[in-house]
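Lab notebook: predicted structure, single chain.

Context: the supervisor wants predicted structures on file for every construct in the current expression panel, including those that have not yet been purified. This is the next one on the list. No modifications to the sequence; it matches the entry in the shared construct table.
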Amino acid sequence: MKTEPVYAENTIVGVWFQGVWRWYVTEREYWFLNIEMEERFGIQVLNEETASAFLQAIQEEQVTAIELRSELHHFRETDPTGDEWFKYVPSFLVDFDKRLFFSMFPEPASFEHYMPDGWIGSYKDFLDMVPEKERYWMVQGKSLFEGNLF
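Prediction complete. Output recorded below exactly as produced.
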């Protein structure tokens, strides 16, 4: 994993693009979709038309569910009672195919209000919308996001 999750800074993001699901760990600022950002590889508005170039630019930030599960599981084993594990909860689900954006970002920032034309943004728990095989927080039917597991 090139970029480590950091609570409210480096975020875990689930992306649908051209029918393919991917996980990324990136800096949070990339996901203000309709704000012009020099740091976003010259992409002024991030939408379905610019997604291909953007995702190519951040391909080194892509991670698998297996990597995320391993990191989260190890973290929960070594720190079973603290709340540092919150950094492993995904912050955003971006569906470039359907022009939908869901945020669970844990701090005030309202990413869901910065949508390109024709997009719908919502602050909503989207964990049930993640494909089952991509739910890295689930191990043997139990969520690593719940209580004292170890």
